[in-house]
Design goal:
By secondary structure, this protein is α/β, with parallel strands linked by helices. It has one domain: HUPs (Rossmann fold). 53% of the residues lie in helices and 10% in strands. The chain contains 14 helices and eight strands. It has a six-stranded mixed sheet, with helices on both faces. β2, α3 and β3 form a beta-alpha-beta unit. α2 packs across α9, α5 packs across α6 and α7 packs across α10. The C terminus is likely disordered. The protein binds iron/sulfur cluster. The site of iron/sulfur cluster has 12 residues, from α6.
Length: 301
C-alpha cells in the first residue's frame, strides 16, 4: 500500500499535477483503478469528490454504479452522477449504433465531454482519471504505430487548464494494473471485476496484450517505453497541440469548447437520438470528429 501511495506522490510531484488544498474531481468507473485513485488522493489529504457516468450498458453499468456508490456511501464521500440515458436520451450500445460509431468511440467522446463539463461546472481545480501505466503505454503504442501526431502531443500525464478545459491529471501513471488491483484487495475495496462487454475487439486491448508479451520477455520495457517517450520525444509533437487549440471555438448548443459551430458531443446526441438538426449535420460534414478530442485516448473502462 505504501508503494502505491509513494508512486502516486512521485507522479504528482514530478509532473506538478496537484497542489496542496486543490479540489479534485475523480472520474470513477467502479473499477479498481479509479477507486484506488480516489482512496489514495484522500489519504494524501486532497479534497476529492467522485463523478460517476452511467453509460447505459446493461448489467455492466448497474454493477459499476453499485460499486462506485457503495465506496462513496461507506466513507461518507460526495459522488456526483450523470446518467447518459435519462439526461441525454441514449445509452452507449443503442446510441453508438444509431450514430454509426464504434461503441468505444462514442463512449470515449461522451466521457471526455461530460467529465470536462462536470469539472468546469463544479469549479474543481483538476479532473483526475485512473489511467495506469499499462493503459498509457498501450495508448502510446497505438498512437506510435499510426504516428498520430495530434494524439501524441496530448499523451501527457497532465494537461493544463485552458480554452475552457479543466486541468486533467493521471496520478496512477507510475503504477501497473496488478498493483492497483493488489492495493484494492489490501484496502478491502470492493470493485467491479467484470470487463465492459463492449470492449471486445477494441484495438486498445490488442496493444495491451502485445505489450504484456514484451514485458514478460523483458521486464521494465513498458516503463522505459512510456517514460522514455515523455523524456525524449513528447516535446517534438507539442506544435500540433497548439494548432488544434488555436482552432477552438464555442459550441452554439452547449457552450463547451468546439472545433466547429457545434461540439462533437452535441452532434453525437443528435445522431444517437435521431434528433437531427440540419445545421448540425452540416457541421458534422465540415469538422472531422477526432480533431475535437483534446485527450489522446479512448481507453476502455
Ligand atoms: Fe466505454 Fe470502455 Fe466499454 Fe468501450 S470498453 S464502451 S470505452 S466503458
Amino acid at each position: 500500500m505504501r508503494l502505491c501511495r509513494d508512486q502516486v506522490v512521485k507522479a504528482i510531484e514530478a509532473f506538478e499535477m496537484l497542489s496542496p488544498g486543490d479540489r479534485v474531481l475523480v472520474a470513477v468507473s467502479g473499477g479498481k483503478d479509479s477507486l484506488a485513485l480516489w482512496d489514495i488522493l484522500l489519504a494524501l489529504g486532497y479534497e476529492v469528490d467522485g463523478l460517476y457516468l452511467g453509460l447505459g450498458i446493461g448489467d455492466y453499468s448497474e454493477g459499476s454504479g453499485h460499486h462506485a456508490r457503495e465506496f462513496a456511501a461507506a466513507r461518507g464521500l460526495r459522488l456526483l452522477e450523470v446518467d447518459l440515458r435519462s439526461e441525454h436520451g441514449f445509452g452507449i450500445p443503442d446510441g453508438s449504433r444509431a450514430a454509426n460509431r464504434p461503441p468505444c468511440s462514442a463512449c470515449g467522446l461522451s466521457k471526455r465531454h461530460l467529465f470536462d463539463r462536470s469539472a468546469r461546472d463544479g469549479d474543481y481545480d483538476a479532473l483526475a482519471t485512473g489511467h495506469n501505466l499499462d493503459d498509457e503505454a498501450a495508448v502510446l503504442f497505438g498512437n506510435v504505430l499510426r504516428w498520430e501526431g495530434e494524439y501524441l502531443a496530448r499523451q501527457m500525464p497532465v494537461l493544463p487548464a485552458g480554452n475552457g478545459f479543466p486541468r486533467k491529471v493521471k496520478p496512477l501513471v507510475r503504477l501497473g494494473e496488478r498493483e492497483t488491483a493488489a492495493y484494492c484487495v489490501l484496502r478491502g475495496i470492493d470493485y467491479q471485476v467484470e470487463e465492459c462487454p463492449m470492449a471486445a475487439g477494441n484495438r486498445h486491448l490488442g496493444y495491451k496484450a502485445a505489450l504484456n508479451a514484451v514485458e514478460a520477455q523483458s521486464p521494465g520495457t513498458r516503463h522505459a517505453f512510456y517514460f522514455g517517450f515523455l523524456d525524449r520525444a513528447a516535446d517534438l509533437f507539442r506544435s500540433q497541440m497548439a494548432e488544434v487549440d488555436q482552432g477552438l471555438g464555442t459550441c452554439a448548443t452547449c457552450g463547451s469548447p468546439a472545433n466547429g459551430e457545434v461540439c462533437a458531443f452535441c452532434r453525437l446526441v443528435d445522431r444517437a437520438t435521431g434528433d437531427r438538426d440540419p445545421t448540425h449535420d452540416a457541421a458534422v460534414r465540415r469538422v472531422p470528429v477526432r480533431l475535437e478530442s483534446r485527450q489522446a485516448d479512448g481507453v476502455p473502462g
